[in-house]
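Running co-folding for pyridoxal-5'-phosphate.
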Amino acid sequence: MSKSFNALKLAEEQIADLDLQLLKRKLRITSSPCDSKVLIEERELKAFCSNDYLGLANHPEIANAWSEGAQKYGVGSGASHLISGHSIAHELLEKRLAAFQSHHLPKPRTLFFSTGYLANLTAITGLVRLASPGNASIYSAKLNHASLIDGVRLASAQTNAVVTLFDHTQLDSLIDALKKDTRPFKLIVTDGVFSMDGDLAPVTELLAIAEQYDALLMVDDAHGFGVLGKQGHGILEQKNICSDRIIYIGTLGKAAGVSGAFICAQDSFIEWLIQKGRPYIYSTATPPAIAHALLKSLEIIETDEGKERRTHLDKLIDIWQKEMHFSAWKKISSSTPIQPLILGSNANALLAAQLLDDAGYWIPAIRPPTVPVGSARLRITFSANHSEDDLRALINTLQSIEQQVIEKSF
Ligand SMILES: *Cc1c(COP(=O)(O)O)cnc(C)c1O
């Protein structure tokens, strides 16, 4: 056995350095289903941190559908979609997801993925390869999710696409850059709901810009699908927009409560990604049982139960906005179940998270690089399984913790 070799020493030093900067992250092990209360190391904590907005992750009918799917299709898909892994369950799910967006994309087609990360990598790298090397421009919102950022970086490395970042709250510089852009292929990429702030992208304005400058508009609606719109179809339904230029990404491990993601777009774009999307082609298909479970989840999202869950979420958001007031912490204006409190320093965010834990709450501190330096925060999220009393109790606890953090901080 070698004593200490260079790579190992580097790893140890880097980890020690993260710890020193208060940037080391810790795994916590749960031993109960994802729900409004969870068991962690034999303590029951009230959780306000999952993305299970509709409270479907522990829904008995969806769990039954998963079991039924396993009985029907077994537990594994056995291969990638193009080899032998594409089941009738995947096919039915893709048709159903396409129907969800049919008022927002003319004749849409859908491609199902095991994760949103993979869907985003596939969509960006694949679409950019429609242009010859050096002939594509990508415009990416600065606060986009890491999977979009990585997709953009990979596409740029593979094809020499030119990348421009833009501020989604101020579109003038995006327009200026597009005016000067003579490349024949342009892709604008944005989160639908920004995942750490909870605000919506200005998709109506972005679509008008995409139309004016002949660009595609890719919207990653990981936090809008299931939540936004009367029927839960997402941000395109909420904003009532429709265009053949839209590349819509929805994920299915958040509000849909299960796992997976999809790209929804015009048939030719989807067909191209099936032919050329490397992460799609070279990855084993999700177990069909999961697709079967997701069909049940989509049914719940669209019908009365889903509507009731969304109405209840809206009520929680309304209570939070009306009753939650702080003296020092900054509340971001958000109309979604993502309600961040900006504490600034890593130390303050960690202290607040610890005090919350002591009081029986699970809300981890979110620190850089997930959020910009100096904007460490508590990212509070609501689920339809929280009651109004749960929320009011949280509000009381947070207000007393704010005072304690102010007294102890520097
Ligand atoms: C969570 C998330 C993803 C990744 O989806 P997974 O299915 O968890 O891989 C992509 N984009 C955004 C905006 C997200 O919040």
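Result summary
The mean pLDDT is 96.
Residues 388-408 form the longest helix (21 residues).
Job closed.
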